Amino acid sequence: MTPPAHRTARALARQTLTAEILDAARRQLAELGPGQLSLRAISRELGMTSSAIYRYFASRDELLTVLLVESYTALGDIAERAALGAGTAGERFVATCRSVRAWAKERPHEWSLLYGSPVPGYRAPEQTVDPASRMPLALLRLAEQGLRDGQLTPPQAPEALAPELSAQVAAMAKAMGGDLPDWLGVRMGGAWTQLMGTISAELYGHLVGTFDPSDDFAEYVWAATARRVGFSDPAAG
Questions:
Q1: pTM of the prediction?
Q2: Which of 84, 149, 178, 231 has the most CB atoms around its CB within 10 Å?
Q3: 111-146, pLDDT tens digit by residue?
Q4: Quick check: 95 and 142 in contact, CB under 8 A?
Q5: Do 27 and 94 fall into the same domain?
Q6: What's the domain count of the chain?
Q7: Whether residue 97 is found in the same domain as residue 205
Q8: Which structural domain range is residue 21 located in?
């Protein structure tokens, strides 16, 4: 049964205004940072009463959560698409790192929301966990595939891990639905933090005066990280 026209129009108007609120919130993120996000300031920018905006988002934290989920989802899409591209597992690892960096440079304020300093007073809810996991899981699945297909070489004598660290790797393997040896889980954890750290150092100006511009440096880091993990032929493509 087709809903009444006035209900459809109301739903469309709500969708449109919600999108405008989110766009205004992203402008605030870019100008002031996530810690200064304010529903009242957004309502003033959009010409709304402060009470009206709370019919769309009940609190600043609810708005932050939506922004987090949308940004994690966009980044996950980019990472998964690169991970499923052409080439060896090592080449696709480098391509995924390259794509994540390109996304971060295009949306530095969103990267800061995801991986910058925690927002005072905000605790991310459970609904952010799955979207946040997509980018690192794309890298983990590449490693698992590379090992299975003989495109990733295991160490001759895998290092023994502390019990707690081994349990953390087991939890990672369970999350990805695969079989992840301890040594590979730890190496991929290091690769993920290397990726985030390199991008953040560039975006926050810590490479100015050294590796600036950073394109060649980033490419070197991605390929070197892939080799440390054990990928073969990571620099091609």
A1: 0.88
A2: 231
A3: 999 999 889 889 999 999 999 999 999 999 999 899
A4: no
A5: no
A6: 2
A7: yes
A8: 1-58
